[in-house]
Amino acid sequence: MKRRQLLQAASAAVALPGVAMAQAYPSKPIRYIVPVAAGGGNDMIARVVTERWGALLGQAFVVDNQSGGGGVVASQLTARAAPDGYTLMQGYVATHGTTPATRRIPYDPVKQFTPIGMIGATPNVLVVNANVPVKTVQEFVDYVKRNPGKMSYGSAGQGSLTHLTMELLKQETGAFILHIPYRGIAPAINDLLGGQTQAMFPGLAAALPHLRSGRMRALAVTGKARSAQLKEVPTMEEVGFKGFDAMQWYGSVGPAGMAAEVVKRLNDTQVAVLNAPDLRDKLAGEAVEPWPMSPEQFGEYIRAEIARWTALAKARNIQLED
After folding, report:
1. Which of 13, 238, 243, 299 has the most CB atoms less than 10 A away?
2. Tally of domains in the chain
3. Which residues of 181-217 are buried (b: 16+ CB within 10 A; e: fewer)?
4. Residue in 238, 244, 210 with CA at minimum distance from that of residue 226
5. CA 122 – CA 203 distance, rounded (Å)
6. 104 and 53 in one domain?
7. Same domain, 146 and 90
8. Digit-coded pLDDT (tens) for 267-307
């Protein structure tokens, strides 16, 4: 009887190879490439999520920080890896959104990757130096127009989300404000606080300490809903800018060609992690809201992001050197 049961089980595995594969996966630790240096918000999100994700899968995730080329090195490593589910990457708005829109890159962000799922997102927030005499977006736009050539805004660098989001506002309002690119968000914020620039569109996590201190003022946030951490601040949509939902987002991807059964197992367990009641508190330090999606939804989101930022870059003549 025992022999017969073993033969039946073996026959079922042969008949349903996908089921057998999904049940066997994962059988060893999973490499999780993060396209930034250790210690930042992107890295923290990866470590919080993969610790719990690995517990559900029964195998550890090994976080591998690969920060070269603004995400290009990490993306190439992932794209070239075997599509067996043992090399994944934390793709985010730069690697699979703004960078492909503004630069020629040595990887295809759609064709060379398998979407696993969205992890979460944080809004950008339109802020001004506390001495700028405006309290609403409309007052800000009017003030910029009344002071042509006198206003400037900082960004984390050419082609960054902080750059493109303000360019989107300029496109929609016709207002001109000079762009001052910095090497990262910290020096850009320092100059805003010092009054060398007057406005910015940083991610919420970077802005929160200075908003709480009163040294900068929030006018509106991006996204479809108000931030739980800035409930009194309206969204850009609420103040009349429909579809202005630029977000700093993070998700997981693998190389192209991964087995559907493995992708489903990864997505099912990732979604379970994101739905855990206490995860929101764990990610609150980066102002990230969990945002679970199916692989199909996440793939559509990536394509829409690339299309949106590519159209803006073309309209604003933003094309950066390799």
Report:
1. 299
2. 2
3. ebeebeebbebbbeeebbbbbbbbbbbbebbeeebbb
4. 238
5. 7
6. yes
7. no
8. 999 999 999 989 999 998 889 999 999 999 999 999 999 99
